[in-house]
Amino acid sequence: MPSRPHLPRPHRHDVLIGLAGLLGGVLMWVMGLHNNPSSFGTPRWVGLITLVTVAAVELLRRSRPLIGLGVGTAALSVDILSGGIGATMLMYTDLVYAAVMYSGPVAARRIPQLCWLLTGLATLVPLTIYNDPLALLSGAFVALLTVTPAWTGSVVRNHREEAQAARLEAERIALLAELDRREAVASERSRMARELHDMVANHLSAIAIHSSAALSLKDPAATDEALGVIRENSVRGLAEMRRLIGLLRGPGETSEPAATSTLGALDTLLEQARANARPGGQDIVLCDERPDGAAPLPAPVELAAYRIVQESLTNALKHAAPGRVDVTLAHRADGPLEVSVISPYGDREGPRAPGSGTGLIGMRERVSLLGGTLDAGPVTRPEGTVWRVRAALPLGDESAQRVP
Length: 404
Hints:
single chain, alpha+beta, Heat Shock Protein 90, 5-stranded mixed β-sheet, about 60% helix
């Protein structure tokens, strides 16, 4: 058999309201405090029944407010015929208030309208029948019983709904702020990972290649040279790691400003790359086709160009076959800065360093942030197949303001 719907337990405040109204009504009935004479011979003791009924439905004012209002309206009508008890009428106003407060939105809108309609009828009908201005008091009495509590319930309900909407909006804003914070943290972590890869991968690749050469070669002179390169790259990698840690610290935690990699430091980068490329047999050549006296490049463009050259040389050091590696910088009037690194493509003999696969991804991301283009892959030429990395970095205002 299907179980009957279980009514929730009444709120303790509702129980207190019902008990207080019941005790006060019984006291009024015993003392003979009635609102008006009984009508149509209705006995006074009927008022006790209506009092108990209204006090009982007070327990439903939150869980079943419309049922409580319907039963209370019928009980109040009978109570008026028996002479009327003030406590019954007072509890009825609370039932009207609760019906507006706790019922659905449609009923909450309709109940005040019905109260106004009932008040109008209670005013016009007696005035029409008795043609006496005193009949207007009946309309005022009905308005006091219905319109006043309904209007109060509407005001309180609107305030609560506005407060709830404000709380939901505050929670939504807090959620959006948290999502923005997480996105900013993820973006910053990605940027730091890219910087860490660009700054340290070159040194670690050189260390891996030269250590492999030192282990495979039995020539003491070659071993000493490889160890010297390993030590030099270890020191430089440690210095750049400390510089990155300085970037991550707060403003007052480091006294040494962090240096920014620019194209002015490209010669140092190439000298270091030439030293690291000796075991692989690569010859690195720079061709700077930028005009003399040109305006300074935007800092984000310089940093992106430097990192692209650095990563391309690191990849050449890891994978390129012996031969010439051409690094070209070109900047024509009203055009983008063009960076090109061409290295021999093919199987390489000798020690190699493993790749992580994130170098090209990092370069593409840097170029994309500046609104440029990047091509990387094998290209067939008359002299053979080469691996070419070519980037075009625009110098417009939007690009100059972006930070890769």
